[in-house]
What we know:
The complex is a heterodimer of chains A (280) and B (249). The radius of gyration of chain A is 25 Å and the shape is flat. A two-stranded antiparallel sheet of chain A has the order 1-2. With 280 residues, chain A is mostly helical. The longest helix of chain A has 31 residues, at 175-205. Chain A contains twelve helices and two strands, in the order H-H-H-H-H-H-H-H-H-H-H-E-E-H. Chain B is an all-alpha fold. Chain B has one domain (2-231): MetI-like (MetI-like fold, Orthogonal Bundle). Chain B contains twelve helices and no strands. In chain B, helix 3 (17-45) crosses helix 7, helix 7 crosses helix 9 (141-171) and helix 11 (188-199) packs antiparallel against helix 12 (202-231). Chain B is globular. Chain A binds chain B through residues 76, 79-86, 89-90, 93-94, 97, 116, 118, 148, 151-152, 194, 197-198, 200-201, 204-208, 211, 218, 221-222, 225, 239, 241-242, 245-246, 248-249, 252-253, 256-257, and chain B through 61-62, 64-71, 73-74, 77-78, 80-81, 166, 170-171, 173-174, 177, 189, 193, 196, 199-200, 202-203, 206, 209-210, 213-214, 217-218, 245, 247-249.
Amino acid sequence: MLETLANWVSQNVSEEAGTWFQYFTNGKHLAWYASVRFTLIAAVFGAMIAVLCGVLGAAARRSGFAPLRWLGLAYTTMVRGIPDVLFILFFPLAFEQLVEFVMSRGLCSAEELAGSAWPPCDAAQWYLSTTEYLIMACVSLGLVYGAFAANVVHGAMNSVPKGQLESARAFGFSNRQIFWNFQVRQMWVYALPGLSNVWMLLLKATSFLSLLQIADIVQWADRLGAPNYFARAGMVHPDWRWKYYFVLFLFYILLTIISERIFEWLQRKAGRGMALHGAD
Amino acid sequence: MDWLLNNPIVQDIITLAKPATFNIYFALASIPIGFPLAVLLAVMKNSGNGLVSRVARVYIYAFRGSPLFIQFFMFYSIMLAFNLSHWKPMGIDHIVMHPLFIGPLVLILNTSAYAAEIFYGALRSLPKGEMEAAQAFGMNRWQTFKAVTWPNALRLAWPAYTNEVVFLFHATALVYFTLPVINEQKDLMNKAGELFERDYNVFLHFSVAGLYFLVISMAIFYISGLIYKRLCAHLDTGAAFKLKPNYMR
């Protein structure tokens, strides 16, 4: 298919265009294009987990049970003092060690467990596949940006008019119903601008996937851009990494533009039927 | 005394003290140039000249819309591409290719875009009455900027700018993920990673590195609060700087 297309281009457009077409559709480039899926999966599922963690974190912060409130406060404050990249590296490593610890209790002998090596024995070693790393990446992105989202959601819940909640109480709804059906239901429109910011941060953090051993767009750009020499063809190209990274630079800007449009549309949609002061 | 020094946490705190200075260096080297550049960009974006305003707009959008991680890779590889043709013949390659130079360079480009957006927001929300008063006094544009626009904008932007400085400090964690590490010139994340590879104790080493970031972030908020108090000294509204950080960059 690609072969015939390349032939068609070189015959009908120009020889040079055909060569370029072949270059940009070779196996490595196709792998690069395909690796965009890791970025998008991490962004979408990371965002879903982040929203969930955000609502739960905000709920914990408003809980009547003090230890839960402190936990919520600690969760939402930690991201402000510590860089996101530290958490994104830490969570998968910590989880991996936790699993290996549990596995080693069952699989390793007593003297191996007494030693200081980690993991105590080879049987307890967990080799992660790309899929498993991707799941971990989604979860750690979700946990980190969930803390950001929790702050947004917490603020948005306070913006829901008190009268709405009081009238719900007057109608005899339970606390749980008031929380989920009135406060959470109505806060989205107030939370959307903040959540849009969180999404932008999360989107930019998907560039860290290569730190978790995933062959993502960044890693492929590095491989493709490196000076390329074949004995048969000679020098294919010198160091082109900056060109490939520039493409990624533009790719992320494009994603930002698209996300902005989508959030504008969502904001219009979410605000329908609600009496908002000063909302446009 | 020995029992204290043999404590693994204390040992880590001592080991990571020197790497922390690299993070502090990257932040300190970026602020003095990033700050004026940001103000310049904000004024440009706010300018009535369509071309000037558009240039600033595109710059700010591009650097806020793409990951710093990619920006680091991109600028390092651009510098690398110019190395043989330009830097080496000029004899400055050992300076401009050094991470201690490229790191702040990229951080300046990045932080100036974020800070410019903050200052632009402040310029847009200046008190109208004071601007009109300046006009009534017959001040020219430069006098107005010096006496009214700038002090007001700085005061309005200060809490958000503090937030940006903390984000900048956190961004220094990325420098040595993207640039080559020379000898023992390692930052917190790098050293923590090295310690982790030695004994696989992820909880200890990463927590201590995180502690360094936390403590320095709090110090930034505290110092900035003192400066803010001075900036607002003449206002009797008691606009006390809250140590409550913003959460969004």
